[in-house]
Sequence to fold (879 residues):
Amino acid sequence: MRRLGVIVNPIAGMGGRVGLKGTDGPAVLARARALGAEPVSGLRAARALAELQGVAVLAAPGAMGAEACAAAGLACETLDGVTMDAAGTRDAARAMAAAGVALILFAGGDGTARDVTGVVGTAVPVLGIPTGVKMQSAVFATSPAAAGRLAARVMAGEARFREAEVMDLDEEALRQGRVSPRLHGVALVPEERVLMQAGKAGAVVTDEAALEALARRIAGEMGRGRLYILGCGTTMRRVKRAIGFDGTLMGVDVALDGRLLAADVSEAQLLRLTETTPATVILGVSGGQGFLLGRGNQQVSAAVLRQVGRANLVVVAGAMKLAALDPACLHVDTGDAAMDAELTGYIAVRTAPDRSAMIRIAA
Amino acid sequence: MSGTPKLIHQARWNEPVVMEMGVKGRRGIVFPRPETDAAALVPAGMRRRQAPALPEMTEHDVLRHYLHLSQQVLGMMGVSLFGTCTMKYNPRVSEALGLRPQMAEIHPLQDDSTIQGLLEIVHRFDLILRELSGMDQFVFQAAGGADAAYTHTCVTRGYFAAKGELEQRNEIITSIQAHPCNPATAATAGFKVVTLMLEENGYPSIEALKAALSNRTAALMINNPDDMGVYNPQIVEWTKLVKQAGGLAFYDHANFNGVMGRIRARELGFDACMFMLHKTFGGPKGGGGPAVGAYGCSAELAPFLPKPIVVKDEATGLYRMDHDRPDSVGKVREFLGNLHIVMRAYVWARAMGGDGIKEAADLAVLANNYMEKKLLAIPGVARSNPEAKTWRMEMTRYGLGPLKEETGLGVVEVGNRMTDYGIDAPWLSHEPWVVPEPFTPEAGELWSKEDIDLWCDVLAKVCDEARSDPEMVRTAPHNAPIGRVDGEAPEDPARWATTWRAWQRKRAALAQQAAE
Fold:
């Protein structure tokens, strides 16, 4: 029997209404409570679960799942021995994966997504009910009801899956007014498929095939004796795999002559390597904000870019990802105003072999 | 016709496909047996080894079957504001002319002297399009808009090859909302594609264009307006910049209906343009049938046009096909193209007259803006590029994103339900879908105020139904001959089949798979 795993982070979203940027950590949660924050996560989770009548559920206990199920009129089996904190979320996800659930539906924000996917990786599909303050990750549905409906399709065996990046913001930086998303891993999520009209339009276009072909093209174009500094994220992982190694998903790797020269390098290493050897920096675009530099790839610093030269900066991103940027521009934040100013302007982002898109870079 | 939505009920005949309707030995016409051995008239190597597997049927059976099929059309014969297609009435007089032997029975290899009337139509229509565009020569070989865009990429290649610059000029610039045939044909012709994104005003910025232009630029290929309906007012500066960079500017006039007779491509600085005769000029369209993309260009590019060109000998007054064009790119299609559509477009243009064409453009813009007022009053409907404050032209991209957020029902379900009211499901959008749950209605100059009111009222009604009875809308259509089409099948190579033979083969494979 296919079962659905349900985990609710009961404190997610409490920081939002009272003007805090999230509830990562006990001190901030206490402040949120002192400011009169009310739990919202359980109510929103119940809204999603209402779409799942008749589905067999394995839920975390109490406010972490079972209560939301009851509120939605959904019978569920409950896990034992789960504490009401981040460690409990991880324990619940681990137990659900071991129990072979078809999907873990969790209510929370980016922090919760990190906890769940940090444990299950891509072994079990996950889907987020958006109840947090920060939701940078592509693992969330657009609304609680939409999450419920998509989960219902998974349980009916009708969904396809894709890999999605798990992002999180540095909350402390956010409170200081800096948006700083960082990639934390990859999750397997059901795809909200848009069915196109047959006839005038062809099949649904996704970035997958174009990026796969482009990764091979880029690998094939690489010259000998030249360093290739490869950024983080799933798009760059395609390039790394096309060259012939897995590399570091969340780190910056360096390739030379078709081999991995150095994995997960630091700024100091990059400065040393590029001092005497010509280099090209290849970067993907992070998440929905369109960050190019300064978010999770601080190793590629202003000093490194200055040494490599702006002309040797290559950006790779799917056309659909770029089309979804609102506004249609990329951001850089190297921490060096002169370098940011130098990078500002338009850049031809490679989207497929022989295809590029002109995008504005804003500091 | 009143503006009150009424449910209709369509025929549902539940007949098998014609290939399954035959009965052995049944015939439409019984011919007398030939007196000689007919098979001996065909060279042995060309004879069929097996008779073709055709259904054996009477003429009556066949006619009845196709009459039934013609009744199962999902609202297509109701009000169809199928956007980006510029749905127009195809006058019966043109159909009657098309059936006359001078059109229906000519052979493409007939001597020019025997088809003077037809060549005169081609030449006169060429002159009409020159008048509407300011170009110096048109050809009608291309069998559609995408084929005309391809013609442009071929002409571009020929032009720069002759200048010795083809190696260097290998990039074509287009925009993210130009019709997808522009980047596609550029790539087919071997060019690299540089895409400009739309910015806040609803069109790409001039700075993006400047950044994209270089000594590698071969051409700009662009619509104006595109399907968002926003006219780029900086277009003259755009073509100037392209020219300064040494490139050619091509105007994809797929969205000509709102600007007909009001602007001329050449005066805006374009070197070439194309018109779709099967939509803007009143020719029949749809079903992948015959179409014409009329491609026109400046005198500078004319030597590279596909050949032959129809020319008039002013001394004798006779028309002929000029094949002696050494710089021509050759052919993009056989002979002169789909001339019966050129004939229909000529009839349309002569019937409308210059003033009529201008009036039609104004009516198309007026109708769209009237419709926009009504559509934006419907809760659940959003407009593309909300920051773009200028008036939209002949069509606008909308989205049902807010309705989907609220009810979980989007444009596909809503479109299906609209067919229950006899309304053709709306055209959604070309890719990429930058607007969630997009739809793009286009009223043009054809549809009456009552038709437009009915269309908008049906949409409003279905949006209400999505809230009051979502299950009913989700499972629509209910009054149509078929239910919802499995949208995933066309993406699964094991299940799609474009021929009877492929369908039999794949059905057998799936059955075997199921048995194992």
